[in-house]
UniProtKB/TrEMBL annotation:
Pfam families: V-ATPase_G. NCBIfam families: V_ATP_synt_G. Belongs to the V-ATPase G subunit family. Residues 1-26 are annotated as: Disordered. This is V-type proton ATPase subunit G. PANTHER family: V-TYPE PROTON ATPASE SUBUNIT G 3 (PTHR12713:SF5), VACUOLAR ATP SYNTHASE SUBUNIT G (PTHR12713). Keywords: Hydrogen ion transport, Ion transport, Transport. Residues 1-12 have a biased composition (Polar residues). Residues 14-26 have a biased composition (Basic and acidic residues). V-ATPase is a heteromultimeric enzyme made up of two complexes: the ATP-hydrolytic V1 complex and the proton translocation V0 complex. The V1 complex consists of three catalytic AB heterodimers that form a heterohexamer, three peripheral stalks each consisting of EG heterodimers, one central rotor including subunits D and F, and the regulatory subunits C and H. The proton translocation complex V0 consists of the proton transport subunit a, a ring of proteolipid subunits c9c'', rotary subunit d, subunits e and f, and the accessory subunits ATP6AP1/Ac45 and ATP6AP2/PRR. Subunit of the V1 complex of vacuolar(H+)-ATPase (V-ATPase), a multisubunit enzyme composed of a peripheral complex (V1) that hydrolyzes ATP and a membrane integral complex (V0) that translocates protons. V-ATPase is responsible for acidifying and maintaining the pH of intracellular compartments and in some cell types, is targeted to the plasma membrane, where it is responsible for acidifying the extracellular environment.
Amino acid sequence: MTSQSQGINQLLQAEKRAKDKLEEAKKRKVKRLKQAKEEAMAEIDQYRMQKDKEFRLKQSKIMGSQSNLSDEIEEKILEKIQALNGSYNRYMESVITQLLSMVCDMKPEIHVNYRATN
């Protein structure tokens, strides 16, 4: 009987050791998974920062060139406005004089297409 209870005790101890080893293996697995997850998150963050930096660089190049274009367009517009104002001031009097002479200096004439119906 003692050998039988000894055998049972050995089996129970072996089962307990196996269970402990399984739990230890599970803990190692969970620990490795957490470590892998942390490494992956760090790699993702590094990649995200790199791409964000590249995006900001491209954006600054594009936006910088757009601001330069808008400055150039604004300069051209101002030059055009100044040219138009100069042209207006230069020709204003002659145009007004010409209009007034056409309106005020009327010469009554018979139109060339008018036919007498007698």
